[in-house]
Design brief:
The protein has about 260 residues and is of the alpha/beta class. The protein has 2 domains: about 210 residues, Rossmann fold (3-Layer(aba) Sandwich), CATH 3.40.50.720; about 35 residues, no CATH class. It has a 7-stranded parallel β-sheet with strand order 3-2-1-4-5-6-7, sandwiched between helices. Helix 3 packs parallel to helix 4.
Amino acid sequence: MDLGLKDRVALVAAASRGIGYAAARELAREGARVFLCSRDERRASEAAKKIHEETGANVAGIAADVTDGGQAEAFVNLALERAGRVDICVTNAGGPPATTFADTDMDMFRRAFEQNALSAIRLAKLVLPGMRKQRWGRIINITSVSVKQPIEGLLLSNTVRAGLTGWAKTVSSEVAAEGVTVNNVAPGYTLTERQDELAEVRGKGSGKSKQEIIESWAMQAPMHRMAKPEEIAAAVAFLASERASYITGVTLQVDGGWVRSLL
């Protein structure tokens, strides 16, 4: 199926590894011109080079911390200068640390809100005017299944990502008539460096090995395995496509059946 992404211009945040990298690569495979960013300039450049060599697509790796307003604006402006427009914006950021309410102070909440809500809202604020003017655009937020079913021990993620979901649903209605869609992709447990780090933290707290924790997560899903980043990226590419033109305001979980709710 042709997704209609050839020559579309896509921004992908926090894309030097993990789900962000997989999303950037999938969009490039579909023919999009991709601008990806990472806080680490070397990692961003290496990721862009690797994707270009694999797909032949035009890919640029930019150093930008999306929690910094000036850097986020520079990232978007660079894409606008080089490509003339932005069609697709995939917001993404590493998750906040695992914690409980008793162990969380207000500064931790502020940092989590900046990292996992304001970073996405800021990017959308920068690209939406152009999308509305051209009457075509896609905003896709990579969040977590925690917005549908809170995950024990991930208080900050459960709290902040749910707020971003409410924002996305509201904005999706404001821009829908102008050909712009706003959706969320909610991954379940996925085999990334982030999950590896969380497994180590959980293991130390429970007296289990990291591998035991990872296996326990895998068994929670009816499929009895964790997702591959490429499986999350496929959902991102679909929501970015022409084929998803009548889908907006949704949170698409990609979780192997982990969430037990009907909706």
